[in-house]
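hey so i finally got around to running the thing on that chain from the lab meeting. sorry it took forever, my laptop kept dying and i had to restart like 3 times. anyway pasting the input first so we r on the same page abt which one it is
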Amino acid sequence: MKTRIIPALLAAALLLSPCAMAESITFSGTVAASRTCEVYAPIGGTVEAVLGEAGQKVAAGDAILRLSTTKVYAEEAGTVTGVFGQPGDSAETVSQKYGAVVYLEGESVYSISASTENAYNSAETRFVHVGEEVYLSCYSDGSHTGTGVITAIEGTSYTVRVLSGEFLIGETVNVYRGDSAVASSRIGRGTLNRVNPTAASGSGSIVSYSVAPGDRVERGDVLFETLEGSFDGLYMSGSDITAGEGGVIGEISAQQGNGVQKGSVVAVIYPEGAMRVEAQIEEANLASVSVGDPVSVELLWNQDEEISYPGTISMISAIPASGASESKDGDSAVTYAVYVDFTPDANTRYGMSAVVTTLDEAEEAAEEPEEATEEPAEAPVEEPAGEPSGERGERSSERSGERPADRNGEFGGFDESEREVKDDAQD
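ok and heres what got predicted. didnt touch it at all, straight out
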């Protein structure tokens, strides 16, 4: 009996021996992004301004770059009479369908197609000049008068743009040199027509409109803006390139004045909270770590206070890191990348130095919360009425073939020493 206890005692002693416990391994690394968010250019163009920089915190929707748009301006003062298409549409397609993106009605809405054939019979009245201001009077009764300017000449025919006055479309108008209807100064006669509105078109995709129908504009005012290329699904995202999610800008590849192509990566964002430790472990220690092992992560940002974070090894690279690192003995050693997941806090920054330490069995047990166990309560034994408990105990012992112990700890006339001798003899 006693000889069988010895192996169990030896095994327990070996388990409790400090030499049998697995030693902790420490390796260093840095805080890096567990994933990245690439920012793509939704359309091509030239970078007008860089609105962010590497290391800057941004929220989803914050502008990182702004593309320079092509602006289409009003060629003359007037009133906007038509706006076609909508942001995101192709300016060329809108122009093919409607003739223009925006129509503008100028100050003058009439013109006269005139000829010198009905001019006063003199050499001077039969020779006109572009830019010459003229006086206008209707041929029928002279009740409609106004002023104009000669805008084009072709042989004996010329065009007068009406600057003032009220006329009827299609009526005949005499044209005079000077400021009154004097027969000797008549330089021709013609028919009054409606001037077509000015058509404003563009190329690329429409980003925004600056006018609406009925707006009054001056020469040089912006009518609409475009960007080269096309938006996906005709969905206009604007001239700003924005962050897809919140985090820290890790890199901006575009610069002011540079051109970017649609679909190219212009920036990289490290998402908020997507942090892990990327460390290097020597080849000799690979057998001591496994995916899923708990570890302790210590960040070195605060030298005055040791702050550690619980972590877990999430991946061990199957190929060695490029280049050889120096071991503790000064020799070159092959290392492998180890990735550790942990929960960062407000003090954690990308690029921070970190020290990772594996946990031994004792530390793991200390890390695990103790589960409270409750022993089931024994059901109370019901005593038959009218019978003392002592007498019932003696009767139960007699039924089971056992004799109750006396006050000296003896059972059935044998003490403890006699029982051990009997057991040894049986063995």
